[in-house]
Every structure is written in structure tokens, then in C-alpha cells.
Amino acid sequence: MEEVNEASDSNSSSHEFETSRRRHKRPSKLAIEDQFEHAINWNAVLLFDECEAYLGKRNDVNEKLILNSKRSKGLVCVLLSNSCVNLPAEFLQKLEYFPSLLFLTTNHAESLDPAIASRVHLTINYPMLNVESRLTIWRNFLDRANPPAVLSMEEIELLSGIELNGRRIKNVVKTAQIMAKREQRAIRLDDIKKVMRITEGVRMK
User: What is the pTM of this model?
Assistant: First the structure.
């Protein structure tokens, strides 16, 4: 009976780890090679978006996988050594001989493997949006709404004082437009307030 339970626990552990491994899956060596080869053949610029997901510090990746698989630590070590750990090395090898432009985008530059970061020729930092930038973004998205939003400049200035990035502003306006369309009208400040309260946890006066 004990043997059956052990086998059951082992299967459960393997399943838990497999689920965790898929959630944190990195591109394979072959997938990386394919992308570089396609870019070379097509004389194209190559972009790796959110590159920290597969070019992060190797210890960080190990810790995330181990934390998400409490019952199968021995299995973690075996699978990591065969799959994830060698990817930055393979990437560096391709990077050394890549003849075109390569862009890496990330919101977590501190998480990149030092070997990758040291080979970046130019780093462009996009700081947090200031009030003026947010004002422009709010106006652009509200003007593009169909029909255009009916907010005054004072109301838009009020919104620009809330620290949101461009993507979140876009999502707020998009959701507010869905709400307004149900009543076949343009977006009003009340719609924005309601969405901000639900999605951003911000209560506006």
C-alpha cells in the first residue's frame, strides 16, 4: 500500500513540475537558431520582446522553478541542466556572429544575465511618464474614440495626474468606450472613473 502511495506522490510531483516548467518555458536551442537564420536569410532586423523571460539570470530562473515545484526538487535539477541553463550561452554564440541589428526589449533590465547585458552596444532607457506625457496620451486616445470623448481639458488634466503608463491608459479608455457604447453615447468622465476604480483601484473625486 505504501508503494502505491509513493508512486502516486511521484506522479503528482512530476505533474506539478511539468505544469510549472510549461508556465516558465523558454525557447529551445533550435527555436533560437531558427530565428537567427531567418533574420540572416531575409536580411531582417531581429526583435526579442520581453527578453528577460528566457535570457534572465540563470539562478533567478532556477529559483522560480524550484519555488513552483516544492515536491520534486530532484527532478528540477535534472531537467534544468538539460534545457534552460544553456540557453544564454547558445544565444551569445549566435549573437557574436549576427550581421544585422538585434533589439531586446524588457521592463526588467536588472534581471538579464550579465553575459547578455555586457554585449549590448546601446541601451535606451524609457523613464516613467511625466504629467505632460500622460496628458498627451490621454488626449490622443480620447480623441480617437468613436465618437470622440466628451471630457473637458480640466478633466483630462485631472486624469493626467494619476500615474499610469501608456498601455494602461489605452486599456482604461477602451473599457470606458465599451461601457459608453452600451448606452450609444460618447465617453464621459464618469465612465473613466468607474473603470479606474474597478481595474486600477483608484477612486477619483
Answer: 0.56
